[in-house]
Design goal:
Elements: H1 3-15, E1 29-34, E2 41-49, E3 52-61, H2 64-77, H3 82-96, H4 119-141
Antiparallel strand pairs: 1-2, 2-3
Helix pairs in contact: 1-2, 2-4, 3-4
Length: 142
């Protein structure tokens, strides 16, 4: 993907993030994620019904990469079965650590394919994805 297009997508999701804003609803599973090495802190809410991610909300104080990544993540994962979400998560994490991955599964999240070249920004991009992984792991363990 062209670097200018990547920047444009990231900027659009930062300036106009999708699914940003928390709601008062006890049917959502909630988690708080923060990056010890910078300002990034996100609260993430996920609604799962019938093994399908029905909705994801997030909010917090974070950099452009963190906010845009969370926005793209919500678009990528909402409506997917939890097994599909796990596969997408695995591929996203593999992409960011320069392991083999399936580009087709990632949609717009492919804009972060070069983040491993700037290790100080990896956590910014990964924070929201780790939050979803944390929630799914908690569900499995309960």
């Amino acid at each position: 993907m062209d670097n200018n297009l990547k920047r444009s997508i990231i900027l659009e999701h930062y300036q106009n993030p999708h699914n940003k804003g928390l709601i008062d609803d006890d049917t959502y599973i909630k988690t708080n994620m923060n990056n010890e090495s910078c300002i990034d802190e996100l609260n993430i809410m996920v609604k799962i019904e019938d093994d399908i991610v029905k909705d994801i909300k997030f909010d917090g104080e974070a950099c452009a990469l963190c906010i845009s990544s969370a926005s793209i993540m919500t678009d990528t994962l909402i409506g997917k079965k939890t097994k599909e979400v796990e596969k997408i998560l695995e591929n996203f994490l593999n992409m960011t650590t320069e392991k083999e991955y399936d580009k087709e599964l990632l949609g717009e999240a492919i804009v972060y394919e070069d983040v491993s070249k700037t290790p100080n920004r990896e956590k910014c991009v990964l924070l929201s994805w780790w939050g979803i992984e944390k929630i799914l792991n908690e569900l499995k363990n309960n």
